[in-house]
Amino acid sequence: MVLLFIGSVVQAQISDEWTELQKVLKDCTGHYSGVNNNVATSGLPVISFCCSNPKSRDSSEVTVKNVTTIPEWFRDSKFGMFIHWGPYSVLGGEWNGKQIEQGDIAEWIMERFHIPLKEYRKVAATFNPVKFNAREWVAVAKNAGMKYIIITSKHHDGFAMFDSKVSDYNIVDYTPFKRDPLKELSEACREAGIKFCVYYSHREDWENPYAYGNTWDFDSSQSSLDTMNYPVLFRKYLDEKAIPQLKELLTNYGPIGIVWFDRGMYTQEQGMEFANLVHTLQPGCLVNGRVGHYDKELLGDYQSLTDNGMPVGGIEEAWETPQTLNDTWGYSKFDKNWKSSSDIIRRMVTIVSKGGNYLLNVGPTGEGVIPAPSINILKDVGEWMHKNSESIYGTSPSPFPTDFPWGFCTRRGELLYLHVFEWPGDRVLKLKGLKNSIVNAFMLTDKEKKIQVSRDKDGQLMISLPESRPDPVNSVVVLQITGPPDIDPLVIHQTGNEQVVLDYLTASTSGKAEKRFNRKGESEQFHISKMEGPEDIIKWHVNISTPGIYEVFITYAAIPGWENCSYKVSAGKEILTGIVRSTQGWYEYKTEKLGQMRLSEKGETLIRLYPEHQLDHYLMYFRSLQLNLVK
Ligand code: FHN
Fold first, then answer.
1. Whose CA is closest to atom 10 on ligand 1?
2. Which pLDDT tens digit goes with each residue over 57-98?
3. How far apart are CA 280 and CA 57, in angstroms?
4. Ligand 1 binding pocket, CB closer than 6 Å
5. pTM of the full structure
């Protein structure tokens, strides 16, 4: 195996690295075999299972159980600040008179222009953010209503923004600044009651010859996103830089709320080493969902959506979406495409009403200043939060099965917060489906003044809004109801004899079944899984307008090892039995015909899907059922 990669790495361009590389090649075989031993003894519960042929499984079929329950602080916070800051901030999107493209992300400038490491190092050596003031940054976040801060401790450029003994390519040893901004920020956060968290690029590192990414300086760099070119060399990067630096972060900066990994990992086992290290050194610290392989089961404690991702429906596991204020993460002097304050407030509410956290980015300059447009937007958000944050912090997602034309809903026990983005012209806010009686109704900003609520003949609530709109962006109506929300389920109406599609958006779940995010694919990132027994049910209320015989098709993914498990699809007394087949991957969705089903009654029927027996693994990654009328 060693011989296989000697040919291409002998051209390594930097001579001292070449000498180093030769040393590695000498002892690499023993070193690499040690990796698997580490994994086997890692202490994380690794559970793998199947219905058919246990011996044929490989590591791609490992199912990972996360070790941490989501702490209250994360569930309740809802709003955090992301900070992308490093030597790229000095360049601000410009290198040798060339600008990064409009809409591009400036922290990638080294890669975009293939800036030689030698040259980039010179930029890093000038990094002197004399205007950096940790307390000021923390105050900006706190005044905006943010509850946690995640800062890039090392982005893909490989430069450590902290005092690292592992590599002198860090802000203390390599720059005239000499200060450790992570230490200062961690202390300022603690003083202000803000959770301090770090971002760490664990696979990609353009300064290290063996990590992923820098192919313009190093022939030995890992260049494939899907397979490691040089596993032994990558191991060396992990052992000599990434893992020791992570240890430094976890031991030198007090309690850390989250370690936010990025760009995934080659193998789940390597991802687990990182997650495991975090949980061992700081058991309460969360690990985000980008720590493991992107195309496999979630590894990490919660899901990080794709960048700037807004889910189309609610997700039922803990999640967060990282988003930008303009187009870039790292500072760019050219990017003026700022979102409006109202857009940011409405995004936050939308995300929270669907159960997520909003991680909003700022990209400070090379001098250590958060750009004025960011400050102004965050000030506006802070003003709205100052009056309305009760409808955000600690709330649970909207209990309603669909979105409203006028805005979104969040909930705290028996209080429903109706976030009105579109103020109705007739000042009557209509709310369908809520069956509870209403004890009280008022605007959040004027709690003493009761507002009138009545029902129309169909039972729809008619909420009489005040004459003047309290907030031009989002005015919050509070409904106090009796008991937990009692809401009509969503009914899918068939028109004529058209196909009925039953999917993630229109389903409701019970037992362990959950609506989930996956990273694979841009447009189809959602599915339902975690069904392990007959109590874990996916269901739909469907109104059939054309009774008859329907052909039923199912779209799902299942990994090898899950095949031959049976499941039921029922509609009243009609029951079909399906047998899971392997689709060869976690997100390799396939459609197959399940059989025929008679839906003989016109009107509403409940369609359910569930495993027939108790399993020791998920049934499938479910995507949709399609019902086609035959006759
Ligand atoms: O490549 C990075 C990018 O620079 C930025 O850090 C974002 C933030 O989520 N993450 C990666 C791309 O997904």
1. 262
2. 333 444 454 555 899 999 999 999 999 999 999 999 999 999
3. 28
4. 84, 105, 107-108, 262-263, 307, 322, 329
5. 0.91
